Predict the structure.
Amino acid sequence: MAGTGKWIVGGIVSLLGLIGLFLAANARDDGIYLFGLAVAAFAVFYVFAAIKNAFDSAEQRHAATAHPPEAA
């Protein structure tokens, strides 16, 4: 996936994380509670990893185009 698709998937995963929190908040048994929390935790880790990857690739592009300092 490239470009905008990564951010669209990140938005969908974020919405699933919110749904997981609603599941956990309204759970009547421990299984649904833990499942909702697990979905929310996965969403948080996924979105933070997407942000990290975006910054890492931007830094690599910047480093590839930057000119090395001249020796004095």
User: Anything to note?
Assistant: The radius of gyration is 19 Å. Residues 4-64 form one domain. Residues 29 and 36 are 11 Å apart (CA to CA). The chain is about 80% helix and 0% strand.
